[in-house]
Amino acid sequence: MSDAMIAGRVRAGKMPWPGLLALFTAAFTAVMTELLPAGLLPQMAGALGVTEGRVGFLVTAYAVASFLAAIPVTAALRGLRRRPVLVAALTGFAVLNGVTAVSSSYAVTFGARVLAGVMGGVLWAMLVGYAARMVPAERRGRAIAIVSAGITVALCAGIPAGAALAGAFGWRAAFGGLAVVAVVLVGWVLWQVTDYPGEPAAVRVPLRRVAVIPGVRPVLGVTMLVLVGHQAMYTYLAPLTELSGPGRTSLVLLVFGAGTVAGILMVGAVIDRRLRATLVLALAAMAVVMPMTGAFGVSAGVLLVAVALWGAAFGGVPTLLQTALVNASGPEHADVATSMQTTVYNAGIAAGSLAGGVVLESAGAGALPWTAFPLVAVALGVVVAARRRAFPPRPGARGRAWPGVRRARAPRTTGAKAGCR
């Protein structure tokens, strides 16, 4: 299908399902590439001749590279057409997962993981903005929800399936399978995902000016607060669960995963009409139910209900915040804005895990919810207060910019300073 035909469908208001599902699969592939080693520690350790802890560092290397690369690499690639950049990142996944599948050297595998993390940083900065540009403004939230669902499917089904494949055919087969998926995905993107121009140098807004667009900083602040609070608890869900009795961790994780799937489905149905109200409800629910998970001696039934509600509330929050950021920055600045959010997201995960570990060691698992609660409560307060720019009650008229979006304008080309900023 040609770009003109796909663009025509978008103008007609139709959801470009083949293209959105390609981006969904790209998100799925990125998460699988990042986290699959965590489920294959013993097998990979034996094959590479290192400890399981050093195999765990392969996940860390990917995350750090993604964290460091997201903003500078995305900024460097802003002027290039979007589809070739997307194809290059997916091709990188194919090659680097293939290298991982055949490597017997820890150093080579580590290097491949670092480069894969760079590809991941570029990909995550692109996916949300790409989805937003593929659909009319009134369906932007739903498109982002579809693409973001690839994360949840990877966590809930992809990682267990990868571990099962590795158990049956070896861990190299799991990474080889990911390489094949990425190759197929390159063809899918070329066939079904329309291309978009990069930002011409004359109208390219500097990073610092994207950061100060009204509404961008509150969204990034809420992202940080929510991720630190959530991760401080989720990282240590096992000791939290033990407070209500031993042997329930696997069931609790399964219930949380099912809750996140339900949350994404519910958010996808209402996000374009009720983004602000849905985000307020989700954060309020998190603030209410998270303390219940740390209550000593709470019954198994109450614990599972609380975890299910926590999962459902949190499941849609990343999609809500990504959509709010695109609305605030405007689709033309979405790649840069979401690269900032990717960095904030990873920083929040790291800070939450660190803070939770300190609290667990010093005060015990029961104190974790009371560490997370004030952070989520402050995030809720910011959303309630920032109703004009970051989280407006409703979008503007169809086809017009959301409140707070400032379009980039080309400079006047007169005199000796033509084209200078």
Commentary on this structure:
The chain has 17 helices and no strands. The chain has helices spanning about 5-10, 15-35, 40-50, 50-75, 80-100, 105-135, 140-170, 170-190, 205-210, 215-235, 235-240, 250-270, 275-295, 300-315, 315-330, 335-365, 370-385. Helix 2 packs antiparallel against helix 6 and helix 2 (about 15-35) runs antiparallel to helix 8 (about 170-190). The radius of gyration is 22 Å and the shape is globular. The two termini are about 40 Å apart.
Which structural class do the helices and strands define? mainly alpha
Number of helices: 17
The third-level CATH topology of the largest domain is Growth Hormone, Chain: A
Helix content: over 70%
Poorly predicted ranges: 396-421
Distance between the termini: 39 Å
What's the β-strand tally? 0
CATH class of the largest domain: Mainly Alpha
Which term fits the overall shape? globular
User: Main beta sheet: strand number and arrangement?
Assistant: none
Percent of residues in beta strands?
A: under 5%
Radius of gyration: 22 Å
Name a few traits of the molecule.
421 residues; mainly alpha; Growth Hormone, Chain: A; 2 domains; 17 helices; disordered C terminus
